[in-house]
Amino acid sequence: MLELVFALLAGILTIAAPCTLPMLPILLGASIGRVGHLRPAMIALGFVISFSATALLLGAITRLFDFDPNVLREAASILLLGFGLLMLWPTPFEWLSMRLNGWLDLGNSSAAQREGALGGLILGTTLGLVWTP
Q1: C-alpha 120: how far from its chain's center?
Q2: Buried b (16+ CB within 10 A) or exposed e, 17-48
Q3: Fewer C-beta neighbours within 10 Å, C or N terminus of the chain?
C-alpha cells in the first residue's frame, strides 16, 4: 500500500515538474470546446509515445555511431535561435512559412477529424517530436 502512495506522489510531482508545466496550456487550449472527450488523453498519449520513441532512437543512434549528443543539442539550439530571429522579420518568416506549408499539410483531413481523438493524437505526436531533448 505504501508503494501505491509513493507512486501517486511521484506522479503528482512529475506533473508539477517545470518541464511539463508549459504543456498544460497547450493540452487544455487544444481540448476545451471540442467534441471528443478522448482528445486530451490522445494528446498525452501521442506526446508520450513520440517523445519516448524519439529520445530512445536518438540515444541509440548516438551510441551506435559513437556520436557526441552535445553536437545534436548545439545544432538544435542554433536552429531554435535561427527560427526565433527569423520571426523578428515578418517577410522572411512568411516566405519560409509558405514554402513549408505544403510539406506540413497532412492531406484532406476534415475539421471533425482534426478536432477529434485522431487529431489529438497527431497534435500530441508533433508536440512530442518538438519537445524531445
Answers
A1: 11
A2: eeeeeebeeebeebbeebebeebbbbbbbbbe
A3: N
Rg over alpha carbons for the chain, rounded to the nearest Å, is: 18
Do 59 and 85 fall within a single domain?
A: no
Q: Is residue 82 part of a domain?
A: yes
Residues of the domain holding 93: 68-105
Distances, alpha carbon 19 to alpha carbons 23, 52, 72, in Å: 8, 15, 20
pTM of the predicted model as reported, rounded to 2 decimal places: 0.59
Q: Note down pLDDT in tens along the chain; length 133 residues.
A: 778 888 788 777 766 666 666 666 766 676 676 666 788 888 888 888 998 898 888 888 888 888 887 887 788 889 888 888 887 887 877 887 777 776 655 554 554 455 677 888 888 888 887 776 5
Classify 114 as helix, strand or coil. Answer: helix
Does residue 77 sit within a domain?
yes
Are residue 77 and residue 58 in the same domain, yes or no?
no
